[in-house]
Write a structure and sequence with these properties.
Elements lengths: L1 H7 L1 H7 L5 H22 L3 H9 L1 H26 L3 H22 L6 H21 L4 H19 L4 H26 L9 H8 L1 H16 L4 H7 L2 H13 L6 H26 L1
Helix pairs in contact: 1-11, 1-13, 3-5, 3-9, 3-11, 4-9, 5-6, 5-8, 5-9, 6-7, 6-8, 6-12, 6-13, 6-14, 7-14, 8-11, 9-11
Length: about 280
């Protein structure tokens, strides 16, 4: 729950960094997250586990895939925040639990109930309504839903601890991030060190804001069923929607009401079914 609580209020943070642009923000997130995880791993004396993960080709390859997924997820979310499309992120994270049903069916051999299939059908209807209303797929929402869902699946199965896995993921992304940041400095357009100490500290804080909630999530993903994680996911998109509409002034038209109405109905059925089957 702590991970979703932190994520729920990150729009304030990334709006404060909006002048950097999504790619520069993501690059800093990766670099400073590595710095945070160096401390975490040292305090936890987990360097032998890091070496084991880097030495295992299967674990290394799996974490490379999860790193790619989380980088796309971060990019889509930050882009939605700084371009005033937070409603799209809300839609994406609301879709994620229902994507989990289909994902569990495809990858884990789980057998969804009839009610869960109806919920998935309603989610499909929600996406279709957005396509009809705007003539294009809600690509931000779909990217967030599928990358976040697949990331949770991979982190549930990979043989690496939460801190170790997150460190390796960021370590794999770090060459690209540092390369981009150095290129910005060479072009004279880099932001770090140009706006005062307060702004630099705000950028550095991206390491903790990135690492801590992902550490919580990765730890829970290995111990909790995907359906249970889906229940906790409701808090974050609910917060995004409230912030987007009532605080940031984003539009919420009739088409959004239709989309979210279908989606919320599906989530209600899905949640009810989860709790019903738990009582059996």
């Amino acid at each position: 729950m702590s991970a979703f609580l932190i994520w729920g209020f990150t729009p304030f943070y990334f709006r404060a960094l909006s002048d950097l642009g999504a790619i520069e923000i993501i690059a800093h997130r990766v670099v400073w997250c590595v710095a945070v995880m160096l401390i975490v791993l040292t305090l936890g004396r987990q360097w032998p586990a890091v070496y084991a993960a880097l030495s295992d080709r299967r674990v290394f390859a799996t974490l490379f895939v999860s790193a790619a997924l989380v980088s796309v997820n971060w990019s889509m979310y930050v882009f939605s925040v700084i371009t005033n499309q937070l409603v799209a992120s809300s839609l994406g994270y609301f879709l994620s639990p229902l994507v989990s049903v289909f994902r569990g069916f495809v990858f884990l051999g789980e057998r969804p109930t009839r009610t869960q299939w109806i919920a998935v059908a309603l989610a499909t209807g929600a996406v279709t309504s957005q396509f009809i209303a705007y003539g294009a797929l809600p690509w931000i929402a779909l990217s967030i839903a599928f990358t976040f869902g697949l990331y949770g699946l991979i982190r549930k199965t990979v043989r690496a601890g939460s801190a170790v896995g997150l460190f390796v993921e960021c370590l794999l992304l770090m060459p690209f991030s540092l390369g981009f940041l150095f290129w910005l400095e060479w072009q004279g357009t880099g932001s770090f060190g140009t706006r005062g100490l307060d702004f630099d500290l705000l950028i550095i804080a991206s390491g903790a804001i990135t690492g801590i909630p992902l550490l919580f999530f990765a730890a829970s993903a290995r111990r909790i069923r995907l359906t249970t994680i889906g229940l906790f996911q409701y808090f974050t998109p609910s917060t995004y929607l409230v912030l987007a509409v009532w605080l940031f002034g984003e539009q919420f038209t009739v088409s959004e009401w239709v989309t979210f109405g279908l989606l919320w109905t599906g989530l209600f059925l899905y949640t009810s079914e989860v709790w019903r089957t738990r009582q059996v």
